[in-house]
Amino acid sequence: xxxxxxxxxxxxxxxxxxxxxxxxxxxxxxxxxxxxxxxxxxxxxxxxxxxxxxxxxxxxxxxxxxxxxxxxxxxxxxxxxxxxxxxxxxxxxxxxxxxxxxxxxxxxxxxxxxxxxxxxxxxxxxxx
Length: 128
Fold this sequence. Notes:
This protein is of the alpha+beta class. The chain has 6 helices and 7 strands. It has one domain: Hotdog Thioesterase (Thiol Ester Dehydrase, Chain A). About 30% of the residues lie in helices and about 15% in strands. The chain has a 3-stranded antiparallel β-sheet. The protein is elongated and about 55 Å long.
């Protein structure tokens, strides 16, 4: 779902409304490995499937920050504000980022965006 907002002044009427939902995206081991390389976090629980098979989850798991980063990237695809030239991500809301659970390769993630007025979460991310 993509929302078109005609003018910045129209944003107020969208407070509390879902203004975009990202399609489900699969998180695979190459994505987890690439994130490990970029962040220099190559802990075995993320990058060594053989060792992780004997670990607490039975599989490698995605980095928490990888999961959180999947929430922000689709905002550009969720909604348009006509006449705007850029958008700035002010960060995540703690309540949304505390809902993560360990997720291995093959998990899928999505997020929906609600326009925030200071009292509601910006996104409700999901993994399944």
